[in-house]
TrEMBL record:
PANTHER family (UniProt xref): HTH-TYPE TRANSCRIPTIONAL REGULATOR YBHD, NITROGEN ASSIMILATION TRANSCRIPTIONAL ACTIVATOR-RELATED
Cellular component GO terms, alphabetical: cytosol
UniProt similarity note: Belongs to the LysR transcriptional regulatory family.
Lineage of origin: Bacteria, Bacillati, Bacillota, Erysipelotrichia, Erysipelotrichales
Annotated organism of origin: Holdemania massiliensis
Residues of the HTH lysR-type domain: 1-58
Protein name: LysR family transcriptional regulator
Record keyword Disulfide bond present: no
GO MF annotation terms: DNA binding; DNA-binding transcription factor activity
Length: 298
């Protein structure tokens, strides 16, 4: 039984008229009649009969219609999936990036990739950490650059690319400013200035505080970086930042003191949903990003 025969049969079963079905299929009634005879011979049973000159389905024909309808729906769904895969080969990629990643060294990675592969168009979506993960999980993006391990690791293939530590950012006159390294316990004496719960910085700090049985107070929990910096400059608390943005060749306006706790990390991870189709363009970008991996992590 061929797909073409299935389509012919389904149309004739719907019309119950050879001329009408043949017209809808753009074939002759003779060609349609021959195809249906061949189909009946294949199963060695009748699929249509006439009653008072009207075409009717036999009991087997009714059962065959149900099965063929399911099969044709599956064929249609398969074609749609394959078309989606083919469209992904057309060199358009969507990458979800946690907020701030493109401001650092990864900008150069993507810039080099664009020069090497000008035919590949990359659309970036810069989002809060949790939303970046969700975009990849929901397959709205091909890849993601997120912070630390995903909250639902079972859904992702994850590669840790670069390791950074969280740090306390303070006013030069703050009591912690002269320290070379600090702890969350030291910082818990002061109001904290950080992003909110849709960012991994907040989650990581809260989890560490729970582990140490620390009670934290916040002067600000917001993605508003201007307000964050202003409060630190006004010496209103301790900002929670990351060593990702530190430039060793340029003195910092505000002292940034790394945390001693090993779990207070800000690791950049490459994530891809495990069952998401990986096009050639996507695979090339994955390889380019993995080349930027810190060799100490491998």
């Amino acid at each position: 039984m061929e797909i073409r025969q299935m389509i012919y049969f389904k149309e004739l079963a719907a019309c119950l008229s050879l001329p009408a079905a043949a017209q809808a299929l753009y074939i002759t009634p003779q060609a349609l009649s021959k195809s249906m005879r061949n189909l009946a011979q294949e199963f060695n049973t009748e699929i249509f009969y006439r009653e008072h000159g009207k075409l009717c389905l036999t009991t087997f024909g009714q059962a065959l219609l149900k099965e063929i309808t399911v099969l044709l729906d599956q064929v249609s769904a398969t074609e749609e999936r394959l078309n989606n895969m083919a469209s992904q080969e057309n060199s358009h990629l969507r990458v979800a990036c946690s907020h701030g990643i493109l401001q650092g060294s990864f900008y150069a990675v993507f810039d080099d990739f664009k020069h090497q592969h000008p035919e590949i168009e990359i659309e970036f979506l810069e989002l809060p950490d949790i939303f970046a993960e969700q975009m990849v999980e929901q397959e709205d993006c091909d890849l993601g650059l997120s912070i630390n391990l995903p909250n639902k690791p079972e859904f992702f293939e994850t590669t840790r690319l670069q390791h950074y530590q969280l740090c306390a950012v303070v006013h030069p006159q703050h009591p912690l400013a002269k320290q070379k390294i600090t702890t969350l316990k030291d910082c818990a004496q002061y109001p904290l200035i950080t992003k909110n719960r849709i960012f991994k910085i907040w989650q990581t700090v809260e989890q560490c505080a729970m582990k140490q049985h620390l009670r934290l107070s916040y002067a600000l929990t917001s993605p508003n970086e201007i307000a964050w910096k202003q409060l630190v400059q006004d010496n209103q608390g301790v900002g929670i930042g990351t060593t990702y943005y530190l430039n060793p060749n340029q003195p910092e306006e505000l002292p940034a003191i790394p945390f001693a706790e090993p779990e207070l990390t800000w690791d950049i991870c490459l994530i891809r949903r495990k069952d998401h189709y990986c096009s050639r363009s996507c695979d090339l970008l994955i390889q380019a990003l993995k080349e930027a991996q810190d060799p100490d992590i491998q």
